[in-house]
Design goal:
By secondary structure, this protein is an alpha+beta fold. The protein has 3 domains: 14-96, Acyl-CoA dehydrogenase/oxidase, N-terminal domain (Butyryl-Coa Dehydrogenase, subunit A, domain 1), CATH 1.10.540; 104-204, Butyryl-CoA Dehydrogenase, subunit A, domain 2 (Beta Barrel); 208-352, Butyryl-CoA Dehydrogenase, subunit A, domain 3 (Up-down Bundle), CATH 1.20.140. Helices cover 48% and strands 15% of the residues. It is built from 9 helices and 10 strands. It has helices at 14-26, 45-59, 62-82, 85-96, 207-243, 255-283, 289-314, 325-335, 342-352; strands at residues 104-105, 121-125, 128-139, 146-153, 156-163, 169-171, 185-195, 200-201, 245-246, 249-250. The strands form 2 sheets. Strands 1, 2, 3, 4, 5, 6, 7 and 8 form an 8-stranded mixed beta sheet that branches. Strands 9-10 form a two-stranded antiparallel sheet. α2 (45-59) crosses α5, α3 packs antiparallel against α4 and α5 packs antiparallel against α6 (255-283). Bound molecules: flavin-adenine dinucleotide. Residues 66, 70, 103-107, 112-113, 137-139, 177, 179-180, 334, 337-338, 340-341, 343-344, 347 line the site of flavin-adenine dinucleotide.
Length: 365
């Protein structure tokens, strides 16, 4: 499905960020790879990849891509996979149409890569659950209507749907990071926040599995949108190499430049192959752990290298504040951290190859 994003509201403050996601919802963009039964298009992950590549190429907005992916993999898909019938009916229509915006809150000040260090807690009360804790670096927190928050209930990691208007929860608007700047980000403060019983998502103790599923999907597919930006980068430098002249010849005649462009092309195509491999595995209902780690690791490092190469090819023109190429360097650095850093992806890959202690192969599990 091809979308025309020409009418999307302009970038700006957090309200603009919200309007931009909502606009995508109105275009029916948030419904890919969601079955018709749940109100989606009923199409494949391959269709999702094509649609997201189009978004990236037309909008050139990594922040919007990050926000949409947090909304999709952090909220819509967990509700679809783990929600009760009532929860799906209640939450999915507004999330799929973009009327409601969501995300997921896992990270805490003392727990980033190490999920065993999470300390947020949930306790049972006669009126529901009481949540206590502090979440950090949460994409969409300043604009979200609801967030899926992970906290320990009886020491078992569990997911809860928390609404902005719930009492004693604060979705703050702080900690802006340099990369993906148009995505809003903030802390979430839970100060004995009481939520009703029907807001527990999935079983008690299913939190770790839910986080794994959500992160694997995000790692697999967030680079669909970002590869759309990389396609634009490639076309821009090819065009520049044809028009810019040095020593009386086109810049691209210089092998040092043309080889960089060839490498950018190869990186882009390799990411597309990895994206399609993830889509293929998903369609066949196969596990994504290894493929998603490899996709995320390769694509984030490739995005950074191609962003650096694009600036080098354009010279100081590439560093002009008005040149979008600048932003992509920071966006790419952020992409090496969100949804699990490059180091963590290497740990996952190495562990699945059987390195180190504690490895159990499929038969042993
Ligand atoms: C743009 C952006 C958006 C984000 N959005 C969200 C969100 O919506 N929800 C959410 O919950 N979180 C979000 N995060 C947080 C993100 O998930 C964490 O930043 C990430 O998990 C890394 O944790 P950390 O920053 O605390 O680094 P740390 O865990 O402190 O790690 C510091 C460094 O040490 C390395 N390291 C850590 N452990 C190991 C290890 N075992 N082996 C090798 N190296 C290791 C890391 O790779 C990193 O380089 C976002 C982050 C960014 C940048």
């Amino acid at each position: 499905m091809n979308y025309d994003f020409s009418q999307i509201p302009a970038q700006g403050d957090k309200y603009a960020s919200r309007l931009r996601i909502r606009h995508c919802g109105r275009l029916q963009f948030l419904k890919h790879a969601v079955s018709v039964e749940f109100g989606g298009h009923g199409d494949s992950f391959e269709d999702l990849i094509i649609a997201h590549q189009g978004l990236g190429k037309q909008c050139l907005d990594s922040g919007l891509i990050l926000s949409i992916n947090a909304h999709l993999w952090g909220a819509i898909f967990p509700i679809m996979s783990f929600g009760s019938i009532q929860q799906r009916q209640r939450w999915l229509p507004a999330l799929l149409s973009g009327e409601m915006i969501a995300g997921q809150a896992i990270t805490e000040p003392q727990a980033g890569s190490d999920m065993n260090a999470l300390t947020a807690t949930a306790t049972v009360s006669d009126k529901g659950f009481i949540l206590k804790g502090h979440k950090r670096f949460i994409t969409n927190a300043p604009i979200a209507d609801t967030l899926i928050i992970y906290a320990k209930l009886d020491n078992k990691l569990t997911a809860f749907l928390v609404k902005r208007e719930d009492k004693k929860v604060f979705f703050t608007d702080n900690n802006p990071v340099k990369g993906c700047a148009t995505a809003t980000m903030g802390d979430v403060l839970l100060e004995n926040c009481l939520i009703p019983t029907d807001r527990k998502l999935g079983k008690v103790g299913a939190g770790a599995l839910m986080i794994q599923n959500a992160l694997e999907l995000e790692r697999s597919f967030i680079f669909a949108g970002l590869s759309g930006i990389m396609e634009w980068q490639l076309e821009t430098v090819i065009n520049y190499s044809r028009t810019r002249k040095v020593n009386g010849a086109h810049l691209g005649k210089n092998q040092a430049i043309s080889h960089k462009i060839a490498e950018m092309k190869l990186r882009l195509e390799t990411i597309t192959l990895w994206l399609n491999e993830c889509a293929r595995l998903k369609i066949k209902n196969k596990r994504l752990t290894l493929a998603s780690a490899q996709t995320k690791l390769y694509a984030s490092e490739a995005f950074l290298q191609s962003s650096l190469d694009a600036i080098q090819i354009m010279g100081t023109m590439g560093l002009l504040e008005t040149n979008k190429m600048n932003d992509f360097v920071h966006d790419a650095i952020a992409s090496r951290l969100f949804a699990g850093s490059s180091e963590i992806q290497k740990n996952i890959i190495a562990k699945l190859l059987g390195t180190g202690e504690g490895y159990k192969n499929e038969e042993e599990k």
